[in-house]
Amino acid sequence: MVRGWAAPIRAELRTRWVGEPGSFFTAWVRAPYVSMPAVQTMINFANHPAGNSAKPEKFADNSVIAELEKSGFIDRLYKQ
Question: What is the pLDDT of residue 37?
């Protein structure tokens, strides 16, 4: 019984995950850098006295992604 009503849902999900226009994959970025303004927003919402003076760079490090991108690894990854 579950297979009967779930089949169209599974088919829709399968279609969306293969990368049609407007699917989930179009939302992914090639190099997933952490957004420092987003980190700052999370710090601002933190209920901690030290949050007022905290800098986003203390919590997020984009150097690894930058190094992977500089080395050409990310480009090679997407070429396959």
Answer: 92
CB 33 within 8 A of CB 63: no
pLDDT of residue 64: 94
For 33, residues 6+ apart whose C-beta sits below 8 A from its C-beta are 62, 65, 66
pTM for the predicted model, two decimal places: 0.57
Q: How far apart are CA 8 and CA 24, in angstroms?
A: 18
Burial class (CB in 10 A: 0-12, 13-18, 19+), 20: exposed
- In contact, 30 and 74? CB cutoff 8 Å: yes
Look at the alpha carbons of 70, 73, 75, 76 in this order and tell me if their dihedral is positive or negative.
positive
